[in-house]
């Protein structure tokens, strides 16, 4: 029967698939793959130029002042007094404006572009633009050019917290005129971008994507040639022998282009300075300084002209065991070719690295008397070719996997054999070519990193090669071994995906560095006796409680447990010590809670804190129904205070009309889409599910698809993936009295049928382990996802930054034309324990912590000091509107939050969630009828709800003895109405 159905399905597929689709006669990708919809990547264009003999033009330089801009530029020129000291009138560049200028070229060829600019934007969100040459993007990387903002510490000296630990100082932006060359925004290219200009007139357009700045002159130059070390030495005269020694502590840089490249506290006798008890900021970098393009400058005051060595005391402890690279800069320029991509090999111990050839001559740097900037820039460009080749192989594997799935109907039957070579005759050639490419890349990576074959990056490539060669021994078995090729956690695709992340990471920890002559340097490691004495001291100190560990407090101090990492707790404690305690005279101690499950145990033992922060949204309900939480509605100002949050966020925290927690952070589910791809295909951003279905044929024609969170949940489908459909079709999960489920209502049945039709009829993907990767690589250019994806795309996808956007969750169109977009969005919460002896004081602290002003300051400080991956999705609506995020994104998220409807908790909620997941699996995978499947689940759900209601005293012997009110948004909204009516 299954075989017959499969044959019918395949025949139908042949008629349904449009001409030019990815399913061709030989099973190959006959349609245009997704990457051909947009411009080619820069490395591909470079290869094409090389093949055509197009080269860089030498000895050319010209500039275009703002007064010569054409188009919009004429209207945006500022008067000289508003030009921030620039010698000419300048152009205000922001609000997605574009400015163009004309340049005459005598000889066609390749040129570099650079710009004078003055940043106005002071947020962590970068200033971004795009470059068009004669009305077109010459390559994909020209769609995003970054104009870095410079940062420095607000105070040169480190202040200390209440425990004597040094605190990372606030970072402030530096507004000054700078010149930047147009570079690849991911900083993977080893040199600035080159642009092909025709002989004669060329129109160059600079389009604003994000941020504000003043734009001065634009320069068109011949690409710069960096001299080699011998040429550099021959240019300058100087004394090679001197006895000078200048020591620079790395934790105090002068200026940097990344606010979150920061000092680091490490307890190590070898670091300078160090303390056995307190945490001192005594080194710089590590993971905060691992993104290619992050540049840090230190100031050195040299006493006399001459040649000097540069020696860095470093620890290179990259988790994968690979090498990292740095550009070395003197006063902003790379002095010679050999230090353009300098290698720092893996070494877990502190060691001195004097820049020079490996086991050979040490480099001398000529410095004149006076102040100089010594700079290091994280540099992943040596791995650029590995990244590009691996990306190519991954995309081709994806195409082959898609073709095989269409041939097999996505059926993985081990008992069935396939003659896949008859449908895809070149499959062996493809797999063999991939293995050869990756083998060359492993050899290249091993050579360029000066390392042995033990680094994870090299091992991953070798494992991928081995798997490909093994698969190619029996190619007809590939359909039954897809977990080895493209789907498993150890598949070739997954190995390459991990490689792409690891090989671009460039962490390095620096304690100090020396500018010196022929002198003996201090040892990088502490002596035996110092290490021994410090070790003994730390051993005895380990018996006392840590700075932020849970410990006994006096009765007047509010004890708060936080389920977050140390850097969050440090910042909150510092803010409370500076603001809350002086204002209220209420002392507070914050402690790290490594596992929120301990709250249940501590509550049972009556050892709970006063307040808990950062806990999951389900936990307050479980504690409150057992009598362990304070009802916040008892406070006179609660209802007024609650208006700062989305009404739907309170539903998980309520029992009847009582509220036992406040939302601290809030998730959001929105549509993520690739603007570049949708514009190229002329596909609109869908507003409703009807629109989504409408764009699917065009997406699928190009081997692409639409993603829903259901595909990201392997096996079990939680509420956040299923409940939105129920709510959008105006269904509900529970009956009004909460004693049974309501998923068998007509509205809920329609929702369930549609939810499963998306996969069974409309061929949306069944399983997507990582939407973020598929979104980056264009196979899923649009889909619904959460805050986590937003953080990943913002912090770890520079190659598509500026060309993705978000839109509200698609919904169900109603009879009056409105669209129901209901979606979940539970984040973390905050609650007060019933055992507190400081109830009023705890409420004051909770109000202070979650108010708009505190949340705004905390979110801004966190992101500025620790980077874009430390985004804080505060639940306070006013504070969220003030976050240092793109305004258009905040507007979309706030619009979606109007439809936030979290699933209320009831004693049997977990069974509803589980059975909804089972219903989806049985309909999609087993082909069962929706109504009969739901009817079976309703019996199991209602039985479990009755059992739990009896446990908590709402039912007895099957009869209701106490009513249970399921909370609703209308109930939450009535709080404010009651106040105004009275």
The CATH topology of the largest domain is: D-Maltodextrin-Binding Protein, domain 2
Provide a count of the helices: 28
* Biggest β-sheet description: 7 strands, antiparallel
CATH class of the largest domain: Alpha Beta
CATH architecture annotation name of the largest domain: 3-Layer(aba) Sandwich
- Helix coverage percent: 25-40%
> What is the count of β-strands?
39
Q: Which structural class best describes the helix and strand composition?
A: alpha+beta
Share in β-strands:
15-25%
Roughly what is the average pLDDT, rounded to an integer? 88
CATH homologous superfamily placement of the largest domain: Periplasmic binding protein-like II
Determine Rg (CA atoms, Å): 31 Å
Q: What do you see in this structure?
A:
The protein has 982 residues and is α+β, with helices and mostly antiparallel strands. It folds into 5 domains: 2-31 and 384-504, no CATH class; 54-153 and 173-183 and 190-221, Jelly Rolls, CATH 2.60.120; 229-380 and 506-531, Sandwich (Jelly Rolls); 557-667 and 826-889, D-Maltodextrin-Binding Protein, domain 2 (3-Layer(aba) Sandwich); 677-821 and 907-951, Periplasmic binding protein-like II (D-Maltodextrin-Binding Protein, domain 2). Strands 13, 15, 16, 18, 21, 22 and 24 form a 7-stranded antiparallel beta sheet that branches. Strands 1, 2, 4, 9, 10 and 12 form a 6-stranded antiparallel beta sheet that branches. A 5-stranded antiparallel beta sheet has the order 14-17-23-19-20, with no helix packed on it. Keywords: Signal. Pfam families: SBP_bac_1.
